[in-house]
Amino acid sequence: MKPPPFQYHDPKTLAEAVGLLGKLDNAKLLAGGQSLMPMLNMRFVQPDHIIDINLVEGMSGIKESGGALEIGAMTRQRDLEFSDLIKAKCPLLHQAIMHIGHRQTRNRGTIGGSLCHLDPAAELVSVCAAHDATVTVAGPNGTREVAFADFPAGYLTPAIELNEIVTTIRIPLWPAGHKAAFIEFSRRHGDFAIVSAAALLQIEKGKISRASVTVGGVAVAPVRVGDVENAITGQAPTSELFAKACESCRSIDAMADIHASADYRQHLATVLSRRALEKAAGLADNAPWNRVH
Amino acid sequence: MTDKRTITVSVNGIKHSKEVPVRITLADFIRYELGLTGTHLGCEHGVCGACTILLDGRSARSCLMLAVQADGHEVLTVEGIAPSSDKLHPLQEAFRDNHGLQCGFCTPGMLTTLLEFLRDNPDPTEQEVRVAISGNLCRCTGYQGIVLAALDAAKRMKATGA
Known about the structure:
The complex is a heterodimer of chains A (293) and B (162). Chain A is of the alpha+beta class and 293 residues long.
């Protein structure tokens, strides 16, 4: 028997789940299980109670509303992958999903679970940062909204209370025709990214009118590189412009671990942010690193 | 105290009702409670892919699910792939004919993963096959034969409508 002993609860409504979460000590929510289950199997976590929210009604679905995508927290990553709406309206999310684990894990893993686990290298976390998403959280006193910039509180720690559950993720859409690219560096396909980069560009009359540049895996939470965004806005997109602007990524406060040193992460952030911008702007079609996976 | 529940799971078309500890994984339920040891356990934390089963037709790692979560669902393990006890599935035939297995440890996960993949994508490229099995580790490093088998299986499955 791998996981430690716990009591199992499978509420059918959100109110019931929030109630249990407020009442039980040392409880963990079980969403898709693709992070919590390994942690249970290895006994990194030893909760007294598991609250499985897979049977809670109304927590999954993808729809467009008021210029944004509204995605239920329990929507499986597979359903994001095969969503025509996401493919058409949110190309960054569509591209990012193909880098998340493998088909077997995307079939179970959820968007809300990924955001709450908040792995520094998680693709969905980077996409939410890039798109200035809003997270809706339900607690005993109703719901509240958290801007994604305020969502990470620290390493693997979202800024939500112990008795709160993420219910919906709202991703504001960029105008039709905007450009997007999500790329990452990992040792093998489907591995955790050592560093990832997400670029969104709106180009009008040959000039960049709006830019979003995010690097993931570098620090404990994704970093929106405002210096790069400011340096390229108003300019015509060229490889030289991007290369020069992305040099500022070398000063990001980067973490070091068994996979890569801080210096190497800064280097990757610099190279990958430039490549993501080039890919988004259509300047990388023949680049050797820009192969289709 | 170990919390227990009674669950009903259909495995390879046969319904099983059992009382299980809530903390047992689906993988251990399949192996220890049902005695279906074709589903292999390698890493038990979702990396190696050996324990892949189909849950309602979708591939999933059975070490990353609790058995209680399969209550009311349909599971397909490697034992349920062949149409009968004396006839292999075209995917299995392609593995045999293309040297798609050496020690056989990763094979159950490769077969279940590819079964779903080839249904979703009946005419894949080699690159697509390699991405599809990227979550399944073969420690014999016999990937060449596995990829050839998958491509051959796609042709056979199209021909037979399997």
